[in-house]
Amino acid sequence: MAEESKSSLDALSALCKRRGFIYHSSEIYGGMPGFWDYGPLGSELKQNVKQAWWQFTVRGREDVAGLDATIIMHPKIWKASGHLDTFADPMTMCKDCKKLMRADQIGDIYADQKKKPQPKAAGSDFFCPYCGGELTEPKPFNLMFKTVVGPIDDPSNVAYLRPETAQAIFAQFTNVVSTSRFAVPFGIAQMGKSFRNEVTPRNYTFRSREFEQMELEFFIRPDEAVEILHGHVVTLADRPNLDGPVQDDWGWEVWHKYWVEQRKKFLNAVGLPTERFVEYWQKPDELAHYARACVDIEYDFPFGRQELEGIAARGDFDLTQHQKHSGVSQMVFDDPLKQAAKKMDEAARKAFVEKVQADWVARGRDAVAAEKFCLGLFEGKYVPHVIEPSAGVDRLMLALLCEAYEEQQLKDDKGKDDVRTVLHFHPKVAPVKAAVFPLIKKDEAQYRFARGLFEKLRKRFNVQWDVSGAIGRRYRRQDEAGTPWCITVDEQTTKDGTFTVRDRDSMEQKRMTTAEFLAMAEEALEF
Ligand code: ATP
Question: Whose alpha carbon is nearest atom 26 of ligand 1?
Answer without folding.
Answer: 207
